[in-house]
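Researcher: Re-running this chain for the archive, since the previous output was lost when a drive failed. Same request as before.
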Amino acid sequence: MTHPFLEAAAEALAAEGIGSLRYQFPYFERGSRRPDPRPVLLATVRGAVELAGREAGGLPVLAGGKSMGGRMTSLAAADERLEGVRGVVFFGFPLHAAGKPSGERGDHLRSVPLPLLFLQGTRDRLADLSLLRPLCTELGDRATLHVVDDADHSFHMTKRSGRTDEEVMGELAGVVSSWASRAVA
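Model: Regenerated structure tokens:
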């Protein structure tokens, strides 16, 4: 939760009037690089969503996360309703392993009954856009895809793009804000 990307995202979202609740999975707390078993990851997501709902004081709650955190959030939402959550935001959905394009990791999204916002870079090696775009189309009105040219999975920009990571983070926060005003209305 202290990763520079997540800190920057929380600050950019705050500038848009959106609060964030950051949390860590137990494996990270232990200093391990190997993720916990899926039931532990999903229970952690549910616990964070429950806490966010209590702390939000009646405000609309969006859930989501960066990469695996977002994927675990959507898996939790596919398994059972996430109380009070009005939409899911993915900062780089990991559709497949790097260099192994496949859409299987997105199959569960068909069972998520919430609006979904995908924020993806054109250089994201974990989400081939030729696979993600059709999935979003299949999900219909529930899915919104915002693509950032020249951004990688962590939304780092190439020098030739002429844009900074900070500018892109501001863009992403603005997209989340605009989408949320429609998604939670």
